[in-house]
Write a structure and sequence with these properties.
homodimer, 272 residues, Alpha-Beta Plaits, ten-stranded mixed sheet, 10 strands
């Protein structure tokens, strides 16, 4: 089996998220698998580093798929009307270019490489970076409107930073988990939670070993409540201890969120 | 009569350009006038600094409208259920906020002020800046796709800059005019024609006293032909002398173009 890993950007506006769903398929994974089926003439399952919610974007989602070497050779030979067998780099370039040709304009495969068979986009991932963009200007964001949460308010960024400081570290984030039936551990480590300001608003940049369902959006919604003065920064500690979704703030809308990148250990599967 | 001037940004993707057209009105001017009619209960004509083509964007289009003082007072009194008459700044804030509330999400009035009665957005304009954005990266521009011309090619930027240098100055730009029936003078002055590079592509930034119909898009299409090596930079001189549309290059697509700003002389009508 050959294992292909790819880096993909998408504008999630029109989609029901990353994960394939039944028949009426408006998902990123579904779109990609449909093109792979067209190319290989067999069903190929892709594995993303994680799901992204409906409406959430990605600049650096990572996914992989396994496919028989003979299937790849056959498909590419057919495509090029030649039986000549060439190297991995050539195969990758062909598959990437085929995907980008048939994928819609809001999905782009940025890189595609052959990786060791044991590499798995989700299981091998060791970290993720998400950015949440808030446009605080009083004026409507005409050009960025699909990629920001427009909140024409003055937020207390110092208070938000104080609260963010209390969220950094290894905690049980059950209060920030959108799935009430979560059975597995809700303990996660946030390494960094920055709030970056610019002239149009602010960006919440979160880096951690992994994030629970809706976690970044609930973190954002809670930090906004702190920024509004509705919640004191110190309350974060109690919110964490409560281990109840109701203790945290509301969930920020999907459109402001973007999966920026996924980290893998060098030599542990990401490179051939 | 009171004269209101406003600065407006719009994403032109969904529109048939700035200028109002008959009944099936999908124009920026039409949308704005519909909201003004809703506010004032009388038809108010807006005057833009110039038309923008279908699909062209603006960050800094300028327009103005004249309206009877009594109409403004009546409309705002009704809106606030009070007969209290307040100053210009208050009136402007009310009108701007009303416009932004009822305009669609892709049109935003950034400023609105009272100006001397003689001020006219088109007739008083002394200069304009347009930017044309070309994405030359091989990868699809997922997030900017509606604001760039995607041209995954290597362009000779030095040659383009040489050609741009020959376009700067006062010339008869008939070869770059999209209107074959143009009766008025086609002489214009380009003060600056810069080509700015970044990691995703390049931006052609043009400043001049005014531009003919489609002129920036034809200038761009011609510069791209130079960048591709299909036209030598020196040919610009002959293209100008020819005074024939066919002598210049093709017209670049609308979506890469944006009207950045319009200049007015200080004290000659832009400030009260």
């Amino acid at each position: 089996m050959k294992n292909f890993r790819f880096l993909v950007s998408y504008d999630g506006t029109k989609y029901d998220g990353w994960q394939r769903q039944g028949n009426t398929d408006r998902t990123i994974q579904g779109k990609i698998e449909a093109v792979l089926y067209r190319l290989f003439d067999v069903s190929v399952e892709t594995h993303g580093s994680g799901r992204t919610d409906a409406g959430v974007h990605a600049r650096g989602q990572v996914a992989n798929f396994w496919v028989e070497e003979s299937v790849v050779e056959k498909a590419l030979a057919k495509l090029h009307r030649s039986r000549e067998s060439r190297g991995n780099a050539w195969q990758c370039a062909q598959i990437q270019s085929y995907l980008n040709e048939y994928l819609p304009e809001d999905i782009c495969v940025r890189e595609l490489t052959v990786v060791p068979e044991r590499f798995h986009s989700r299981l091998s991932a060791v970290g993720k970076t998400y950015c949440y963009r808030i446009h605080t200007s009083l004026l409507k964001p005409v050009f960025d409107r699909k990629y920001v949460w427009w909140l024409p308010e003055t937020l207390d960024v110092d208070a938000m930073r104080q609260a963010a400081g209390l969220l950094v570290g290894t905690h049980d984030f059950m209060s920030f988990c959108g799935n009430p039936k979560m059975k597995k551990s809700t303990v996660r480590t946030i390494n960094k939670l920055e709030i970056l300001e610019d002239d149009q608003g602010l960006t919440i940049r979160a880096h951690g070993d992994g994030f629970l369902q809706n976690m970044v959006r609930i973190l954002t919604g809670t930090l906004v409540e702190v920024g509004r003065g509705n919640v004191v920064p110190q309350a974060i500690t109690e919110i964490l201890v409560a281990r109840k979704r109701a203790a945290a703030g509301p969930m920020a809308p999907a459109q402001g969120l973007c999966l920026e990148s996924v980290d893998y250990l060098q030599g542990k599967g990401d490179l051939l």
